[in-house]
Description:
- Helices cover about 10% and strands about 30% of the residues.
- By secondary structure, it is mainly beta.
Amino acid sequence: MKTFHGSCTCRAVQFEADLDLTAxxxxxxxxxxxxxxxxxxxxxxxxxxxxxxxxxLADFQRKPASKPEPYLHLYxxxxxxxxxxxxxxxxxxxxxxxxxxxxxxxxxYADGAHNDWKTEPAIHSYL
Length: 127
């Protein structure tokens, strides 16, 4: 477990996240993740903390057809539009992660397009 620091492009929003990148990361092919090219590192409850600019965040709530209510909170900066993290984490906006750490992080691919989160999609190289 390591505490990383991250921000949006304009730095109005800054955060820290406790992540174990050696455990697992996830890429998904659901309609949202595919378009956004999301790469998640899952943090435990309370493992992501906004250190600056919480009032500058907007919250897009994702509700898959298979769920009765939204379960993903995808936060983005009201100024630059960058999504620094979601409720569960996110790797793309980390400022102090090294290329070596990202390259070594194992990736689990999820077939969210078919609501089969435990199965790897047949084609995932585009994720």
